[in-house]
Fold this protein.
Amino acid sequence: MSAASTSPRASEHRRRAARLPATRFDKRLGEILAHATDVFCKKGYEGASMRDLSRTSGMSLAGLYYYFQSKERLLFLIQKHTFTTIVEQLKTRLEGVGSAEQRIRIFILNHLEYFLSNQAAMKVLSHEDDALKNGFASEVKAIKREYYRICVSLLDELKRERGLQFSTRIAVLSLFGMMNWIYTWHHPRVDADADELARQMSDIFLCGVMNAARGRHRE
Amino acid sequence: MSAASTSPRASEHRRRAARLPATRFDKRLGEILAHATDVFCKKGYEGASMRDLSRTSGMSLAGLYYYFQSKERLLFLIQKHTFTTIVEQLKTRLEGVGSAEQRIRIFILNHLEYFLSNQAAMKVLSHEDDALKNGFASEVKAIKREYYRICVSLLDELKRERGLQFSTRIAVLSLFGMMNWIYTWHHPRVDADADELARQMSDIFLCGVMNAARGRHRE
Amino acid sequence: MSAASTSPRASEHRRRAARLPATRFDKRLGEILAHATDVFCKKGYEGASMRDLSRTSGMSLAGLYYYFQSKERLLFLIQKHTFTTIVEQLKTRLEGVGSAEQRIRIFILNHLEYFLSNQAAMKVLSHEDDALKNGFASEVKAIKREYYRICVSLLDELKRERGLQFSTRIAVLSLFGMMNWIYTWHHPRVDADADELARQMSDIFLCGVMNAARGRHRE
Amino acid sequence: MSAASTSPRASEHRRRAARLPATRFDKRLGEILAHATDVFCKKGYEGASMRDLSRTSGMSLAGLYYYFQSKERLLFLIQKHTFTTIVEQLKTRLEGVGSAEQRIRIFILNHLEYFLSNQAAMKVLSHEDDALKNGFASEVKAIKREYYRICVSLLDELKRERGLQFSTRIAVLSLFGMMNWIYTWHHPRVDADADELARQMSDIFLCGVMNAARGRHRE
DNA sequence: AATGAATGAGGGTTCATTCAT
DNA sequence: CATGAATGAACCCTCATTCAT
C-alpha cells in the first residue's frame, strides 16, 4: 500500500485498536464516508465543498479533518473502498465456475448488482475518474487495472475456448462503457433490476462478440 | 428556441449580420469557444476557472464577459453547438439510406467520427451532462432527446424489419454507453480510428441485439 | 422575529451562551459592527467595500464572513441594533411622564441625544434607509413603523389635550425631518449639544403646531 | 466657473453653436441627464452603473462618454443644474415682495414646489450630498452656500422686523430638514400637494420661531 | 474526540473607462 | 456623432485548510 493511503495519525490509531474488528474511529469514518459519497454524487467532487460535507454529516468542518486529512484523500478512500469491494466480491463469485461464458455473465452481474446497490459510490467512481493526482491516483489506478485485467483474461478465455478473433481491448472497453453508463440513465422505479439488466447486457454483448467474431454478422 | 439562448446583444448582432456567414464577433466567439472547450475537457467545468480561460484564450477576464454573459452560458453554447452539429450531420447522412441495419451503422459511424474528431467537445458534452441548470439545461436536453429519439426509431425499424423482440431502451442506452465511454480510454496514437472502431462496435452491437433477440444466444 | 435575523450559527451560539451577558463571539461581533458603522458612515453602504471593513477592523476578509454572512446582513444588524436601542431607551424614559408636551419634549431629546452620541450609526440608519431588501428590509421597517407610531400617538395626545387640529402625519414627518437632517450639518465642535438642540427644536416645533393649529398664526 | 465644469470638447462645441438657444448637443445632453436623474434616484449614485444609464437612455456606453466625461461629472451636472434653477426661480419670485414673513413663505413654497415637481432630481441633490469630490464638490457647495445664505438673510430680516431672538443657523437648518426630508415619505397620490404642504410647514415653522423666540412657548 | 475561530488564495462577475473605427 | 470591443481594477463571497483549545 502506498504512502498516500496511511496517515501517521490513522495508522497509530489502527495499531492501538487492532484487536477490535471495527473501532469507533472506523465506524465514525464509515458514516462520514457514506455521507460524502452522496454529496460527491450529487454535486461532483469539484462542486462539493467541505462545508457541504460538514452540513450533511453533521460534523464540524474541523472535525472532518480529524478523520480525513484532505478532501482529496476523502475521495480516494471512497474510490478505493468501492473498487476493492467490487473486486473482492467478484473473485469470490468466480471461484469454481467453469465455462468462460458463464464467468463473463458473472462478471457482468457482479458489476451491475454492485452498481445498482451502490449507485452513488459507483457514480463517484465512474465520474470522478481523473480527479485524483499523483499517489492517490496511482493507487486507485492499480486496482482499476487489476479489475480490467480480470475482464481481459475472461474474454481471452472465451476466445481460446471458442476459437474467436476480435480485439479484446475494444470489446472489454465497450462492455465497461455499456455498464458504467447506466449511472446516467437508470431510474430504480422505471428500469429493470440488476438481474434482468445483466441478462440483457450479457446477451447483447456475448452474442455480439461471438457472432461478430466469426466474420461479419450473417443471416 | 428558448430565451436562454439569445442575449439582446447577440441577437441584435446576428440580425444586422444575417447576410454574412460569420461576423467578426462570431469569429472571435468561436475562437474562445474552442479554447474553452479544451480547458473544460482538461479540468472539468467546475474545476476550470474563468481565469484559466482568460489565460488560454489570451483575452482579458473582463473581455470574455463581452462574449459570454456567464460561465454557465459558455458551457451551454459549447454543448448546444456540438450537439446541434452532430444531429444535423446525422440527418444528412441518413437521407436515402435504406436498410435499418445500414442506418444504424451510419448512426454509430457518425457518432464516433464526430467524437474522435472533436474529442474535447464530446467529452464536455458527455461528462458535464448535468452541470447546466434551468433554461440552459432544458434546451440542451431537448436536443439530446431528439438525438435519442432518432436512435430509438432506427432500432424500432430494425425490430420491425426482422421481427425481433428486445427492450429498445436498454439497447439504445447500452449503445450510447459503448460509444460515449471512449472518451475515458481512447488514445489516437494507440487505438483504432473511427472507421475501424465503428465497424467493430457496430458488429458487436448489431450481432448482439439480432441474435440475442431470437431467444437466448445459441450455438 | 423573522428568519432573516437569525442564522443557524448565531442562534446556536446564543442558546448556549444565554446565561452570560456577552460571549466572545458577541464581543468580537460588536467590535466589527462598530468599525463597520464608521466605514458605512464615511463612504455609504454601496461605496464601502468589504475590503475597507477588513482593513479598518484589522480582520481578514474571510474572517468577517464568519461573523456576518453578507454585507447586507451587516448593514441589517447595524440598523436593527441602533433602532431597537433607541426605541427601548425612549420607552423607558416615557414611563410615568404626564403631559403630552413633556412627553414630546422627551421624544425629541431622546432622539437627538442618541443621534449625537451615535452620529455614525444614526447617519447609517437615516441615509441607508432603502439599501436593504426583502426580509432584511421588512424587519427594519417594522421597528421604524413602531417608532413612528409612538410619535404619532404622542401628537394625537397633544391634540386631544389642547383641542388642536392639524395633520398629524405632516407634523410628525416634519419633526423627523428636522431631527434627522442634522447628520448633514452638525459639527460637535461648533454646534450646540443635544440638550440645547432639543430645547430649541422642541420650542420651534411645539410652538409651531400649537399656534398654527389654532387657525393661522396671529400676532 | 471652475475648471471642473467645462471640458475642452464641450466648450468648443458650445462656442461653435453659440448662436442657437439649444444646440442638438445640448438637447441630447438634456435627455440623457433626465434619464440619469431617474436612475440615480432609484439606485443611488454609487449603486447606479454606467450600464444602467446606457440601458435607460438607449445610448451606447461609449456614446455617453461623448456627452459626459465621467460618471462624477454627470452627477455634477445634474446637481448643478437643479440647484441653479431653484435658486434662479427663487430670486425671481422674491423680487418686490415686502414683508419678511411673506418672503419666507415664498422661499418655502418655491422649495417644495420645485421639490415635488422634480422629485428625482431633488432626491439626488439631497441624498448624494457628499458624493462629489474636489472641484466638482466645491462648485456645488458654492451654490448651496448661496441658497443657504438667502434663507439666513430672510430669517435675519424677520428677526429684525419683529425683534426676535433665536439661533438663525439652527432655525434655517431645521427648516431645510423639514423640507428636504420629504423625499423619504411623500407619495403624490396620498399626500398633500406643494401648496398645501408649503402652507402647513410655513405655519409650523413661522409660528414656531416667532413664538418660541419670545421666551419659551406660553399659553 | 472535536470544535470555534481564522486565514490566504482564489472563485465568478461587474466596474468605469478607453480607443480605433 | 456614436459604437463595438476591450481592459485593469475591484467587487462580494467561498474555498480548503489550520490551530489553539
Summary: Confidence is low (pLDDT under 50) at residues 1-8, 10-18 of chain B.
